[in-house]
Amino acid sequence: MRALRGLIRLVITLVVIAAIVVAGTNIYVWQKTKDQIVSLSDAKDQDAQVILVLGAGVKPNGSPSPMLTHRLQTALNLYQAGAAKTILISGDHGQVHYDEIKAMRQWLIKHGISPQVIYADHAGFSTYESAYRAEAIFSVQRAIVVTQPYHLPRALYDCQSRGIEVWGVGAAGNAYRGQVERNLREYLARTKDVAWVLTEQKPTYLGPKISLDGPASDTDG
Q1: What DSSP state is assigned to residue 163?
Q2: In Å, what is the CA distance from 116 to each residue of 5, 106, 122, 135?
Q3: What's 177's DSSP letter?
Q4: Whole-angstrom Cα distance, residue 62 to residue 58?
């Protein structure tokens, strides 16, 4: 019985420590990024190098999900407002039959964006990797990041960790099917990304640098 009580106390202690770590890292990320979340009208005055659009799920037919569509619409609005002259789409194209990049590119072109200004990162398998590769591969220095409001703090933190001067614009819509579970996962994901930054984790893939001044067709994949 004494051993059981000791085990229970240990478990409770570990749970409390974990809760403190998660809460602390979330507060840290929020505080570090809160001033960088701006409106579209403010974002267009930041002289950004690029609009970085983070990938999200696509439908079985290959078209963007509602969440991804809202991100693309926000990026389109920013581009049309003159917030930046180029767009960097970053998402998961790790499988032949799953291609966020193709869905994003086709949507933007369909809505009037020239393919000559759409650069693509096919190995943006996570928020952390998209931010890391934006700086390491594409030499991004000043960016406007587009994603949903619940996701913006982590996206901005990851970019800041790579030395990118960054602003975030929340895509319209912040409540989708499964959003409660998504919000809960995001708490843990912020803690995970803080740990990855502190331990200097490398992305799945790196590779040669790609200039945003070069032809965008080099990133068609």
Answers
A1: T
A2: 66, 13, 17, 20
A3: T
A4: 6
Convert the pLDDT of each residue in 55-101 to its tens digit.
988 898 989 999 999 999 999 999 999 999 999 999 988 777 788 99
Q: Are 104 and 53 in contact (CB under 8 A)?
A: yes
How much is the average pLDDT of 182-202?
94
**Rounded (10°) CA dihedral 77, 46, 68, 191:** -160
Q: Which two tokens stand for residue 40?
A: 């579209």
Coil/strand/helix, residue 45: coil
- Dist CA 36 CA 172 (whole Å): 17
Structure tokens at 172: 């319209």
Give the pLDDT band of residue 197 (cuts 50, 70, 90): very high
